[in-house]
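Quick one: co-fold with NAP.
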Amino acid sequence: MDENSRVFVAGHRGLVGSAIVRRLEAEGRRNLILSGRDALDLRVEGAVEEFFARERPEFVYLAAAKVGGILANSTRPAEFLRDNLAIQTNVIHAAWKSGVRKLLFLGSSCIYPKFAPQPIREEYLLTGELEPSNEAYAIAKIAGIEMCQAYRKQYGFSAISLMPTNLYGPGDNFDLQSSHVLPALLRKFHEAAKAGAPEVVIWGTGTPRREFLHVDDLADAAVFLMRNYESGEIVNVGTGQDLTIAELAQAIARITGYHGGLVFDASKPDGTPRKLLDVSRLEGLGWKARIPLEEGIGGTYRWYLNRRAGHTAS
Ligand SMILES: NC(=O)c1ccc[n+]([C@@H]2O[C@H](COP(=O)([O-])OP(=O)(O)OC[C@H]3O[C@@H](n4cnc5c(N)ncnc54)[C@H](OP(=O)(O)O)[C@@H]3O)[C@@H](O)[C@H]2O)c1
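Sure, here it is.
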């Protein structure tokens, strides 16, 4: 991929896609091919084929997907299955057909078996029962990985698949109904600090361990692997380090300047006790996460405050 290559980032307004755009623009690229859902619905096969024939991208980052929290996944499985199958099938096929040189697909750590041994190695994919609440999403994503591998095997198409852990960063979703744990806690603690609330209640016992990767680190890994990795084998992308939800909450309390108490509501479900990726394959290739968690959360908090200020001003 040289500086004049034609690069298409699908889903460039999303958390991951916008980070990939930032990462590529930071090295001076100005010729990215970007097209939002309003202009190009990736579920529509004919429109996608026409787009690829017209724009002739050489490299594709496929960061468009239907993504959601546990509530959306468990109440709208038909949409998660249909949209993701359609988006990835259309994009991967049109990319191959129009002569794209390389495509990068995104799986997710949440599509590994529910009871996978920890830390999770790449070979554990498809070795056990999936988490029922996001089964439709997981099956669509697994089909995407399989499609990349099948196109590589049958047609020699250069497609690679990454398995990112839980991501956070600028562009995250802070809506308490649908957000992930880290942005949800940031918002809760921010509001509690502002209101001078005596305590913040956190769901569960606080003991489950989770891993978090800054989305700018993921974008850096994606660009690195696009340039340096050539295999159908999936690659985990994470920090290789986890912490308890209680430790995460304490860090967020410090960052938001909250000085009240933390109460853990053990009557609420904890989920799986530990979720951590084994990142030895990625580190063996020469890439390591760089953004320390507290620094990354601090930056995300500043982004959130700026966005709130912008909304209030407008
Ligand atoms: N977030 C995480 O923690 C995480 C972890 C592991 C893996 N991943 C993977 O990373 C990828 C991106 O996730 P994300 O968190 O960046 O999601 P996101 O913020 O929801 O972004 C998804 C993007 O896809 C676009 N999109 C959805 N349906 C489309 C359609 N029919 N046509 C065109 N564009 C469409 C969205 O466009 P609009 O803006 O118009 O809706 C949005 O820009 C997914 O494959 C996900 O599985 C994410």
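If it helps, The chain is about 45% helix and 15% strand.
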